Amino acid sequence: VREGGAAEAAGGGGADTVTVRVPAKVNIQLGVGGARPDGYHDLANVFLAVSLYDRVTARPADTLTITCEGPGAAQVPLDGTNLAARAAKLLAERHGIAPDVHLHIAKEIPVAGGMAGGSADGAAALLACDTLWGLGSSRAELLELCARLGSDVPFSLVGGAALGVGRGERLTPLEVGGEFHWVFAVADGGLSTPAVYGEFDRLNEGVRVPAPKASEPLLAALRTGDAPALGAALSNDLQPAALSLRPSLATTLTTGRAAGALAALVSGSGPTTAFLASDAVSAVAIARALLASGTCVATHTATSPAAGATVL
Ligand code: C5P
């Protein structure tokens, strides 16, 4: 995307405008261990990028400013706490320059929905600023900065599918043998990720939570593109915590299953719910049934895998 006559500058060290498209993620496995001394949880986190995108546009400005449009934009902070703003500051600091940039976020990914929307904007802003400022950072440098911004940010940069261990930020790419069809049901209002992890800890008080491990049947289903097998292997250890904080999500899950979903689960820390469909036609039918049931405020159909953050 080029705007305001910036076309001729795009390839060099100083484009006028840079837009980056970045995908949402669904966790097809979210294996969570016990709380660590630093408050984080060790994860066996299988990320899959889906074709639901935010776009972040960076252009030169006198000072760091952010604007946002799209569903849920009113809930997005426009101050220094926004992950896109933090990304611009971190990158500028690393290179000893001022983060004087305007970032415009066009949202499609549900806000505070468990689909890494904030993390996606952080990764996109990092890549957009790196391009706008002509810094030419290596992928390894960008990934290191992503990991400092948040546990899910590195995956937003790389996309595709990956196993994340540690906090979820240490990634190994995974092979995906086919296209998968998804429906996402957007709930009314968000859930705070720390609050869901806190509820996980409360529900597991006194329990020795085993170390999480990636599911072999799940990885095999991903590798062969086998949707029914993938559906049978989906799991999310945060789901009981999300349902405890938002019991109405159980009805949304039941509704999607009844409409023909191969499987249904809470996406990440929720409250977005994810439904695996056997094909595109079934996905549309599931989305319709979910919307008609009144158990969600919006639906999206999407496919996976999707490419990571990309300069348009
Ligand atoms: O890394 P990030 O800032 O995205 O994490 C947000 C919150 O999610 C953390 O403050 C923590 O409460 C929780 N979290 C966790 N264990 C992880 C990742 C996140 O407890 N592996």
From TrEMBL:
Domain GHMP kinase N-terminal: residue ranges: 82-160
Entry's EC annotation: 2.7.1.148
GO molecular function: 4-(cytidine 5'-diphospho)-2-C-methyl-D-erythritol kinase activity; ATP binding
UniProt keywords, alphabetically: ATP-binding, Isoprene biosynthesis, Kinase, Nucleotide-binding, Transferase
Gene3D superfamilies from the UniProt entry: 3.30.230.10, GHMP kinase, C-terminal domain
Binding site for ATP: P110, V111, A112, G113, G114, M115, A116, G117, G118, S119, A120
Biological process annotations from GO: isopentenyl diphosphate biosynthetic process, methylerythritol 4-phosphate pathway; terpenoid biosynthetic process
Active site positions, chain numbering: K25, D152
Reaction catalyzed: 4-CDP-2-C-methyl-D-erythritol + ATP = 4-CDP-2-C-methyl-D-erythritol 2-phosphate + ADP + H(+)
Metabolic or biological pathway: Isoprenoid biosynthesis; isopentenyl diphosphate biosynthesis via DXP pathway; isopentenyl diphosphate from 1-deoxy-D-xylulose 5-phosphate: step 3/6
Boundaries of every GHMP kinase C-terminal domain copy: 218-292
Superkingdom of the source species: Bacteria
Pfam families: GHMP_kinases_C, GHMP_kinases_N
InterPro entries found in the cross-reference section: GHMP_kinase_C_dom (IPR013750), GHMP_kinase_C_sf (IPR036554), GHMP_kinase_N_dom (IPR006204), IspE (IPR004424), Ribosomal_Su5_D2-typ_SF (IPR020568), Ribsml_uS5_D2-typ_fold_subgr (IPR014721)
HAMAP family from the UniProt entry: IspE
Family affiliation: Belongs to the GHMP kinase family. IspE subfamily.
Summary of the function given for this chain in its UniProt record: Catalyzes the phosphorylation of the position 2 hydroxy group of 4-diphosphocytidyl-2C-methyl-D-erythritol.
Record's protein name: 4-diphosphocytidyl-2-C-methyl-D-erythritol kinase
Organism of provenance: Streptomyces clavuligerus
Phylogenetic lineage: Bacteria, Bacillati, Actinomycetota, Actinomycetes, Kitasatosporales
Name of the gene this protein is made from: ispE
